[in-house]
Design a protein that fits this description.
Helices cover 46% and strands 20% of the residues. The protein has 440 residues and is of the alpha+beta class. A 4-stranded mixed sheet has the order 2-3-1-4, with helices on one face. A hairpin with a 2-residue loop joins β2 and β3. The longest helix is centred in the C-terminal third of the chain and has 32 residues. The protein starts with a helix and ends with a helix.
C-alpha cells in the first residue's frame, strides 16, 4: 500500500507540473491568436490513451512517460510535421508571428514553472513558517562515519562555512558539503579550511547521502529495543553511558566505535544513573550493537520555527526559489564529475517514486513539487535544440541579426535535439531498469 501511495504522489506531482508548464505555452499562444493542434499529457506516438477534440485543439493523454507537449501550428518541434510547413505560412501559425511573440510563447512554460515554485514556497513558509535546525546550537559539533572521514571531516568538528558561506541551517549542511568545494570547520578550537574530497562524495552518493554526518550527542538512552542485550542487562531510559570496559566514551559515536571492536565479547558498560555510577555486563550482537536508541533531544532544542507574515513570506519564497535553482545548477558539477560517479545514480520515473513517503504528506509533496518545478524550468531553458531554451536561442539570434534562420536549419537542429534527448532518456530508463533488476 505504501508503494502505491508513493506512485500516486509522483503521478499527481508530474501531472500538475507538466500541465501547468504546457499551459504556459498554450495561454500566450492563444492570446496571440495562434492555432493549437494538440495539448497532451505524456507522449502519444501511434495512439492515445484518451483524447477529445474541442474546437481546433485535440486534448489527450499519451502513454510514454516523457512529460507532455503542446503542438503549435507552424512550429518546428518534436513532432517534425513537415507537411504543414510545406504550405504557405498562415496568419494563425507560429512561424507567422513576430519574434517577440514567439519568444513569449516558447518561454511561457519555464516562466510558469518558476512562478509556481515561488508561489508554493511562499504558501509553505506562510502556513508552516521557516523550519530549520540552528547550526550554532549544535554545541558538540558533528559525528561522522567512515565516509564522512573520507570527505575530510572528523567527529567533533563544528562546521562554520562551505565555500565561504556561513552555514546557519544544520539540516542544509549535508547538501552544501556534497555540492561544495571547500569547507571551514572549528577543529580542536582552531579554524581550519580544507578541500572536500571527490572520492568521499562518491561514497556519499552511493549511499544516497544518508548518515555521513550527524549532530554529536552524549550517549543518553532514549528507548530500548525489546529482547535486546540492552534490555537483558538492565539498561534503562535516561541512563548515560560514560565508558566501555576501561575506555572512556563521552559521545555516542565513540561508544559505537568502541563496541565494534569488542563485538561478540562480554563487556562492562559504565553508566551514570541518578548521578550514581554503576556497571552493567552484556554481550553485543554480531553486528556490534546492544539494542538501544540514543537521545537526540539536542536536535529538538536546536529546532527553530520562524513564523512569517504573508508579506514576509513572499520575498522569503523568492529567495528559496533562487536558492533551489542555484542548487540545481551546482549539482550538475557533481553529476559531470567522473570522480564522484554521480551519473550512475541519476533516477528516472521508474525509481523516482521512492523519493516520496509511503504515507501522504502534503507538506513534503508540495515541497517536492516546488523543487521539481524549478528543475523542469532549469532543464527546459538549457540551450539544447528540442528544448524551450534551444528554440529561444534561435529567436534571440533572429532578433539580434534581424535575419530569420531557414526552416531547414531549424529542422536539422530539432532532429539533433530529439536524438540527443531520446539518447538521454534511454540512458536514464536503462539506469532505472538496471537498478531495479539488480536491487542496487
Amino acid at each position: 500500500m505504501g508503494t502505491l501511495i508513493q506512485i500516486a504522489q509522483l503521478i499527481l506531482c508530474l501531472s500538475i507540473l507538466v500541465i501547468l508548464h504546457e499551459l504556459g505555452h498554450f495561454l500566450p499562444a492563444k492570446y496571440f491568436k495562434t492555432k493549437i493542434d494538440k495539448f497532451y499529457l505524456l507522449f502519444d506516438p501511434w495512439f492515445s490513451v484518451v483524447k477529445k477534440k474541442i474546437g481546433d485543439t485535440e486534448y489527450g493523454i499519451g502513454w510514454i512517460p516523457m512529460g507532455g507537449y503542446v503542438k503549435i501550428a507552424g512550429m518546428i518541434d518534436e513532432s517534425m510535421d513537415k507537411e504543414q510547413l510545406k504550405q504557405e505560412p498562415q496568419p494563425w501559425e507560429y512561424r507567422s508571428k513576430p519574434a517577440y511573440q514567439r519568444l513569449i510563447i516558447i518561454c511561457g512554460g519555464v516562466i510558469v514553472n518558476f512562478f509556481l515554485a515561488w508561489f508554493i514556497y511562499t504558501m509553505l513558509l506562510f502556513n508552516n513558517g521557516d523550519n530549520f535546525v540552528d547550526n550554532s546550537k549544535i554545541s558538540n559539533g558533528i559525528a561522522v562515519d567512515s565516509i564522512g572521514s573520507i570527505i575530510g571531516l572528523k567527529s567533533g568538528d563544528k562546521i562554520l562555512k562551505v565555500d565561504g558561506v556561513v552555514q546557519k541551517k544544520f539540516d542544509h549542511i549535508p547538501m552544501e558539503v556534497l555540492f561544495g568545494n571547500e569547507i571551514t570547520v572549528n577543529r580542536d578550537g582552531k579554524e581550519t579550511t580544507f578541500l572536500l574530497s571527490d572520492e568521499g562524495k562518491r561514497e556519499v552518493i552511493k549511499r544516497a547521502g544518508k548518515n555521513f554526518l550527524a549532530p554529536r550527542v552524549e550517549t543518553v538512552v532514549d528507548s530500548i529495543i525489546k529482547d535486546s542485550p540492552a534490555m537483558t542487562c538492565g539498561l534503562q531510559k535516561g541512563d548515560k553511558i560514560i565508558g566501555i570496559n576501561d575506555l572512556k566514551t563521552s559521545f555516542f559515536d565513540e561508544f559505537s566505535t568502541a563496541l565494534e571492536h569488542v563485538k561478540k565479547d562480554t563487556v562492562q558498560i559504565k553508566v551514570l544513573r541518578n548521578n550514581t555510577e554503576i556497571v552493567l555486563k552484556t554481550k553485543p550482537t554480531k553486528e556490534g550493537k546492544i539494542g538501544f536508541y540514543p537521545d537526540f533531544s539536542i536536535l529538538k532544542a536546536a529546532y527553530i520555527t520562524q513564523k512569517l507574515s504573508f508579506a514576509e513570506a513572499i520575498p522569503a519564497g523568492f529567495n528559496k526559489t533562487i536558492s533551489t535553482l542555484s542548487n540545481q545548477i551546482r549539482q550538475f558539477k557533481v553529476i559531470f564529475n567522473t570522480k564522484t560517479e554521480a551519473y550512475k545514480q541519476v533516477s528516472g520515473p521508474l525509481r523516482m517514486f521512492k523519493i516520496f513517503k509511503p504515507v501522504w504528506d502534503w507538506t513534503f509533496f508540495w515541497s517536492f513539487c516546488a523543487m521539481f518545478s524549478i528543475w523542469l524550468a532549469f532543464l527546459n531553458i538549457l540551450p539544447i535544440p528540442g528544448l524551450d531554451g534551444g528554440h529561444a536561442v534561435f529567436i534571440l539570434i533572429e532578433i539580434v541579426t534581424r535575419k530569420k534562420p531557414t526552416e531547414k536549419t531549424l529542422e536539422v537542429a530539432q532532429t539533433i535535439g530529439v536524438v540527443l534527448l531520446l539518447s538521454i532518456m534511454a540512458l536514464v530508463f536503462g539506469n532505472d531498469i538496471w537498478h531495479l533488476i539488480t536491487g542496487k
